[in-house]
User: Fold this.
Amino acid sequence: MRKYVRLMLCGMAVMMLAAGCSKKEETPKEETTASSETGQTEAEIVDKGEVTKLGTYKGVEVTRMSVEVSDEELDARIQSILDANPERIEITDRAAQNGDVVNIDYVGMKDGEAFDGGTAQGYDLKLGSGTFIDGFEDGLIGAKTGDELSLNLTFPENYGNADLAGQAVVFDVTVNRIEEEKEAVLDDAFVQRISDFTTVDEFRADTLSDMEAEKNNQADQQVETDAFMAVLENSEYDLNEEAVEQQYNTLMDNYNSMMQMYGIELADYVKMFGMTEEQFQDEIRVTAERAVQEQLLVAAIAEAEGLKVDDTDREKLAKQYGTDIKTLTDSYGAESVDETAMVYKVVQFIKDNAVVK
Assistant:
């Protein structure tokens, strides 16, 4: 059976905890936020505004989605499993061709010396998949089991590793095995090949159980999200625009840093989603405003209900991140951990007091 990781309700919890990376060594009144433009840090704005009208947060009505799994959904899931696990037949009477899977050993060398990350043994590579740099997979078409080849190639100019970008290299490759992929058929043999079950019926029943668990998990998350968002929308706020601007800058800094890491321009990244850079920035500004509203709402409900964070809440948060309280606190700081734990506590409080239809 699979384990399902509960998703975050909103980006607020992630941002609040991540902010602890820069604040854990500071006093609560001297929290800082990184600025990629100046390379320095600026004091985090503590006064984010106020909730001028707290909407009804107990007894919020929400509708829970259906968790029934249809036959069509089950069949589609099983088909996806079949597609992901094709049958492989070893080929011994012909050379490798496009679409085959070749098992190879290889060593990549630059200026006669092996470079980091360029060596592997027993690697399964599907020819035509575009997994390796241009010329590598094409160079193996026509090879036979046992062949040893030297491929003279050049890394692309925009390759992520600056030491290899645009550089000429040689890959020495040994072909260990060639296999042809064929569509898998749902039978007992397939079930025994990919799972611990014996029959198709057992496999279908387990897949159905997994899907039902997924849908129940999704339904719980949807109730949680809908209830919180209903309270958020029904409340009124007087926001400190400087705090919103700071949140916006933090979000944009994070995106720009991520784009730099992958060697992508922000304008090119947003084009993939059919947006202009200006439209993207507008979306981020809305997200920043919403994040500040969420922080104010959580604080207002916590105060109204006298909610406090205890070790049980901290343990739940640590579990979300797959760690323990000490590690989480050492990484992000006690204050950020407690702020984030309070987010989950308030969200759970709203959900527990909601009227679910």
User: Anything to note?
Assistant: The chain has a mean pLDDT of 89. The chain has twelve helices and eleven strands.
